[in-house]
């Protein structure tokens, strides 16, 4: 007979995911061990194995839940009844908020996906490609030219914007010279209106006054 699940089964499983994401983001998936995860969680190795057969299964569960949530939230945002410019600003701000809230998981996604089996990598990449596709279609709506409606160009421009968000974890620090909300706003303005935008100067002045003299590194 299978062992029945405890009332706090999901809570304990989530704790393993949360602590593992911090550990993988800090020391790397290759260095982390089940013993280290158990220590972080304050539980025994045996209890870890009650939930997961190995650390690779933990990694996939962690990243699957992350990209599934990301894809769901972005899909919902792209379906909102907003004009293309408002929608771009909303989605950019939402992505930045998600990345700040799930920073450890995002770092692991960007650096450790290769540690998974090919079929698991394929699942995650397919889910990510759906986000890219949504961005690409939004960009096509923003620009009326035939050139930007070509599949290759839409994807390239969409990746340009996503790249400006995806890699913020390498330099952005909360409490720095610009907040996550301000960064999303500045990025949207540059993307929509260019570096010579008059509004951009106002946004950056407001950001400096609001955040003091700290730097983002």
Automatic annotation (TrEMBL):
> Which positions does the record tag as DNA-binding?
33-52
Select a single GO molecular function from the record's annotations and give it.
Answer: DNA binding
Q: Name one Pfam family in it.
A: TetR_N
Q: What SUPFAM superfamilies has UniProt attached to this entry?
A: Homeodomain-like, Tetracyclin repressor-like, C-terminal domain
> Which InterPro entries does the record cross-reference, listed alphabetically?
Homeodomain-like_sf, HTH-type_Tx_Regulator, HTH_TetR, KstR2_TetR_C, Tet_transcr_reg_TetR-rel_C_sf
Alphabetized, the UniProt keywords read: DNA-binding
**Signal sequence extent:** none
What Gene3D superfamilies does the record tag this protein with? Homeodomain-like, Tetracycline Repressor, domain 2
User: Where's the HTH tetR-type domain?
Assistant: 10-70
What is the name attached to this protein's record?
Answer: TetR/AcrR family transcriptional regulator
Provenance organism: Oleomonas cavernae
Please spell out the taxonomic lineage of the organism that makes this protein.
Answer: Bacteria, Pseudomonadati, Pseudomonadota, Alphaproteobacteria, Acetobacterales
